Amino acid sequence: MEAKLTSKGQITIPKEIRRLLNLQSGDAVSFEVHESGVTINKSRRPLTIQERFENYDFNNSKEEIEKAMREIDTGNDVGEER
After folding, report:
1. Is residue 27 within 8 Å of residue 43, measured between CB atoms?
2. Which fold does the domain 15-69 belong to in CATH?
3. Does residue 62 register a pLDDT over 70?
4. pTM of whole model > 0.70?
């Protein structure tokens, strides 16, 4: 399978690859560079608020609630804000 690179550096991931990786519009992908080429993977998305707290016991102490509500580390920032 092949994809053509546009003048803006964009490619369209072929439909079969999107289906195999279960990629949907808005999903993030990651690229790993190896000696033999590049691997593309579906990135793990951050959990929604509902997913983060669906099994949570709201009878916990204030400290436990604050700990659970802290931001998740999603990795390094890609660029700087302007």
Report:
1. yes
2. Pemi-like Protein 1; Chain: D (2.10.260)
3. yes
4. no
Task: Report how far residue 63's alpha carbon sits from residue 68's, in angstroms, rounded to the nearest whole number.
Answer: 9
Nearest to 32 by CA among 41, 23, 24: 41
47/58 Cα distance (integer angstroms): 18
What's the token pair of residue 18? 């999107």
The per-type count for the chain, helices as H runs and strands as E runs, is 3, 2
Q: Report which residue type is found at 25.
A: S
- Position 49, amino acid: I
**Residue 17 exposed, middle or buried by CB count within 10 Å (0-12, 13-18, 19+):** middle
User: How many degrees, rounded to 5, is the angle at CA 2 between CA 9 and CA 27?
Assistant: 60
